[in-house]
Q: What sequence folds into this?
């Protein structure tokens, strides 16, 4: 079959299925707005969850920048503490497998 006779060669000329009418521009716009609101709500919920799990977030604003900053600060503290614990174990003669030393 040549490119000219392919059924999907020009989708604007292809007949649409009779059971499903095309959306109007307003319906497309409303669908887009609803999808975007849903996406933003999901992101907001995850930032709220991060804020709940991060010490020191109580009473602070919940802006994304503040949440991310506090999460990074907390993660760095946890890595530093883990390194200290590994060093203490090894100092006392213990062995820490390499896969447990990956940060």
A:
């Amino acid at each position: 079959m040549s490119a000219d006779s392919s059924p999907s060669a020009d989708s604007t000329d292809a007949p649409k299925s009779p059971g499903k009418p095309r959306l109007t521009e307003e319906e497309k716009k409303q669908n887009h707005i609803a999808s975007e609101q849903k996406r933003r709500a999901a992101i907001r919920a995850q930032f709220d969850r991060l804020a709940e799990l991060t010490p020191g977030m109580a009473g602070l604003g919940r802006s994304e920048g503040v949440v991310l900053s506090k999460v990074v600060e907390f993660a760095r503290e946890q890595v530093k503490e883990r390194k200290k614990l590994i060093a203490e174990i090894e100092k006392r003669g213990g062995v820490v497998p390499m896969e447990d030393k990956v940060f």
Q: What stands out?
A: The chain has a mean pLDDT of 85. Helices lie at 25-53, 64-91. Residues 2 and 80 are 65 Å apart (CA to CA).
